[in-house]
User: Fold Granzyme B from Myotis brandtii.
Amino acid sequence: MQPPLLVLLLAFFLLPSAEAGEIIGGHEAKPHSRPYMAYLHIEDEEEESMCGGVLVQKKYVLTAAHCNGRSISVTLGAHNIRKQEKTQQVVLVKRAIPHPKFIKRKGTYDIMLLQLERNIKQTDAVKPLPLPRGKDLPNPGDNCTVAGWGQVTRRGPGSDTLQEVELTLQADLKCKRRFNHYNKNIQLCVGNPRENKTTFQ
Assistant:
């Protein structure tokens, strides 16, 4: 079973305002324990931004469609994104493939594949995470881990090091009652409103 990937997808796609990688109430990950994590540096006309992603094949990274831009570089094998580590591989994106039904203002189908300019070199610090099959989906009550870079407090600065937090998968009905836009066919319901643990502001 591959719950880490599934919940990473949630970090990208549940709320339109979410930036991938905001880990609230978690802790620093063990360096290079998540060799599939990708840090995206995005350049557009007049601004720069960052997102997280998941290496799913030697030449493909899965991320959110709102993480598109004129130029995207992907850093793999990183723990601290502000330091040059020997484990890091930086690869430019050759082609961005957003979901054809993606609507930015609604945040629906906020998923995208990035085709890298070249295959990555697989090492202990850089390895793809295979996508789960339908039979591998987690069930309510399962604990899943979310990982990423970004803010670790609601108004604080971003973290330079990879952070992670464990969240519990909830029954779809719990999110349906709280969020009108929740769609169980394309989203997962995770977290506990009584805990200060989340993946977004």
Remarks:
- Residues 3-13 form the longest helix (11 residues).
